[in-house]
Amino acid sequence: MEPSKASYTALVTSLMRALHTRSDPAPLLDDPWGDRLVPESVQAGLRDRAMARLDPAERAEAAPARVLDAAMRANAAYPGVILRSRYTEDMLAAAVARGIAQYVLIGAGFDSFLCRRPSWAEGLQVYEVDHPATQQLKRERLRHCGIAESGDVHFVAADLAEETLQSALARSSFDPARPTFFSWLGVTVYLTREANLATLRAIATVAPVGSELVFTYIDEAALQPGHAGTEGFRKLRSDVSGVGEAFLSGFDPATLGALLLETGLVLTEDLDGEQTVARYDAAGTNGLQRQRDGAGYIAHARVDARVISAAPPAA
Ligand SMILES: C[S@@+](CC[C@H](N)C(=O)[O-])C[C@H]1O[C@@H](n2cnc3c(N)ncnc32)[C@H](O)[C@@H]1O
What we know:
Layout: H1 8-23, H2 33-36, H3 40-52, H4 56-61, H5 64-74, H6 78-97, E1 102-106, E2 125-130, H7 132-144, E3 153-157, H8 165-169, E4 180-184, H9 193-206, E5 212-218, H10 231-242, H11 256-262, E6 265-272, H12 273-280, E7 296-303
Helix pairs in contact: 3-5, 6-12
The chain binds S-adenosylmethionine.
């Protein structure tokens, strides 16, 4: 990502969660903050871009807000963005019931968990780790929305291409002795394989056995030259690359379990897009079915053994 600019993809995914909440028939998320956290200037720019894609006759008749909503719903990332948040918060709730006391959002973006903290999460220490430019805008927006920063929410600015998660968390009150739940949603694809492996090792280094991780990844085969993929995936890849957030790496679903073991984690669940939709929208009520393109996965893992030290990411 561009060092001085907040993540564009994080702003768009925030709007997607709000759109789902306000207009899908049986919302899986209750996220009224998704719109509010995104500056009006950004929303206006997105509306303009969506309108510019219409032909002139359609444009004359169209309502810009509706056109943007339709464009976001048609985006290949939309179902995965909704489903990954729901899956993660279900897993988090179960983990909290088991005694997990810290929640680290790696690449938190404009995730609004801290604005709508459910009663089961009272007392949870929340750590948002994100690229400095994204986090700065998030904090400005929280202030703009009148959300006071409370003592149990901690912001850790870090470029994970340049430093390890371990060294970033060391700047905070994060307690390595307490079982922790990590989420890492929509981020691994924007980091190199080396940075991703360093982050996985860091999780097993800083958190005790029994700590948990939910993360999304894409099948690395989808990034190989000549891979056909779906039109939606190709368009998404081209769009994000155009805003300076190119897809950099994925994992091989066939070998992910073995890879995680090497980093001190045990894979407990790995769902592809179809399986995630089958769990949360089997009847198609929200229209979240998506074409099987081999791209999007969500995985759950547990820290199985502490690793001694985390390797630094490639510069
Ligand atoms: C697609 S957004 C996902 C945001 C959020 N997790 C969500 O699900 O909406 C990608 C996130 O990764 C973060 N990110 C990308 N590259 C990063 C890096 N090198 N270091 C830290 N964070 C990074 C961005 O700042 C952004 O918040």
